[in-house]
């Protein structure tokens, strides 16, 4: 479940920047949101690969 925790932590860490960007128009927060979403995409791909490998091994 540590991978799930990583995903949750990443998403929760972006909450403040989402609010700053969407509600206050803070452009720097938008940049952080974009970076965080890219990190989330990369993490998701890593997890998908791990799951596929584990599934195929068993």
Q: What does this entry look like structurally?
A:
- The protein is an all-alpha fold and 58 residues long.
- It has one domain (2-51).
- The chain contains three helices and no strands.
- Helix 1 (2-13) runs antiparallel to helix 3 and helix 2 (15-24) packs antiparallel against helix 3 (27-57).
- The longest helix has 31 residues, at 27-57.
- The protein is elongated and about 50 Å long.
- The two termini are 19 Å apart.
- The mean pLDDT is 96.
Question: How would the blueprint of this fold be written?
Answer:
Layout: H1 2-13, H2 15-24, H3 27-57
Helix pairs in contact: 1-3, 2-3
- Biggest sheet features: none
The general outline is: elongated
| Overall average pLDDT | 96
Number of strands: 0
Function: Might have a role analogous to that of eukaryotic histone proteins.
GO molecular function, one term: structural constituent of chromatin
Organism: Algoriphagus boritolerans DSM 17298 = JCM 18970
Protein name: Histone H1-like protein Hc1
Task: Write a concise synopsis of the structure shown.
With 58 residues, this protein is mainly α.
